[in-house]
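Question (not urgent): is this output format expected?
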Amino acid sequence: MQQTAPYPEILAGLVKRLFYRQHLGWRVWLEDDCQRDKPGRHSGESRGLTLVVQRCGPNTYHPEHVMAVNHYFPVPPATYNLESWQRWLFDRLGDVDTHERMEDFAIADSPGSEHVVRPYAPVHKPGWDPYLVTVEATALDRRTSFRGELNPQ
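Got this back:
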């Protein structure tokens, strides 16, 4: 696959002027020809102009450790105007916020319990969109109608 578009100067200008959570250890930049997916770890290599959003802070699963995580977003081959690029950038930051919220949302097994479940924890494995909010459900859940009646197979 190959796509062509002019370099998004408008987006680059927005990224350079962006103020977003620097006080919390976040950084945002554009990286040309960034290798997002490495061959062998994914179904193929993915690379190109990429918006990188780095979040540096406590590890959700081990808060005693500070870690930096890069979130990679392929820049679409588009000829957007200022408003469209601005909204695209805003939505990508929202994707990172959603991902972090999915990791941070935890419910204790019972009152006073330290064991928690994370029902919306993102799926990080290859092939999955790590910004997609997933909900686990059983086949029985899926066959049950909104009235609580079990539908046939």
